[in-house]
Specification:
Helix content is 32%, strand content 27%. The protein has 208 residues and is α+β, with helices and mostly antiparallel strands. It has 2 domains: 4-168, Jelly Rolls (Sandwich), CATH 2.60.120; 175-207, no CATH class.
Length: 208
């Protein structure tokens, strides 16, 4: 695949694609050194090796690794000269991006591991996004925006599935749920035992 970079300057949706690209580096490729402008930039190493420096941390990266950074962070990343890497990436913008990230475990890190199946899934989604934007470059903007939004939400679905915050994994009722139930059923024959059964929790959990 030839090097490619797509940039969308008209971001209007709550979450949307701001850029995507593919690049095969060579030993003399320039060092990327900048302050991140987008809400979130996500990279996947298709082959080779390279290095990332961000927030006084240094990472050595290889094939199938992923790395990312967030708006306002100063980043520096560059290829290994003996085994130059090939990267694929996307950038995400929109007011709801930060809200999405807060529901994951990604905010305090810059690299994470994926299962083999999930790694393949994410890789294929990224390749599809880049290939479609390259091949459909002349597509009307309204259609292009809809296609990219659909692709981004598909990508984010699998990211959240893999890195959902622990507090959101269970469906345990909150105190508000229980209080609402009591207020709505106080005229009936209710008891702590019945409340626990209704919410599928133990009797002891009801009093925590």
């Amino acid at each position: 695949m030839e090097d490619f970079w797509y940039h969308n300057s008209s971001v209007s949706a709550p979450i949307s694609l701001s850029q995507c690209g593919y690049e095969s580096y060579h030993p003399k490729s320039s060092i990327r050194n900048y302050i991140v402008q987008q809400k979130w930039i996500f990279h996947y190493v298709l082959s080779g090796k390279g290095f990332l420096e961000v927030e006084a941390q240094h990472f050595e990266l290889k094939e199938h690794d992923i790395f990312f950074f967030f708006q306002g962070q100063k980043v520096k990343y560059y290829t290994d000269k003996k085994e130059p890497w090939t990267l694929i990436w996307l950038g995400i913008q929109g007011d709801k991006t930060s809200e999405f990230l807060k529901e994951t475990t990604l905010l305090n890190t810059h690299t994470v591991s994926l299962t083999k199946n999930m790694n393949k899934k994410i890789k294929n989604i990224l390749l599809k996004i880049v290939c479609e934007n390259r091949e459909l470059i002349d597509e009307p903007e309204t259609l292009k925006e809809l296609r990219n939004i659909a692709s981004i939400y598909n990508f984010l679905y699998y990211i959240k599935k893999a890195f959902l915050a622990p507090s959101l994994i269970t469906n345990k009722p909150t105190q508000v749920n229980i209080i609402d139930y009591i207020n709505n059923h106080y005229m009936n024959d209710i008891s702590p035992k019945k409340i626990a059964q209704y919410f599928n929790i133990s009797y002891s959990q009801l009093y925590k």
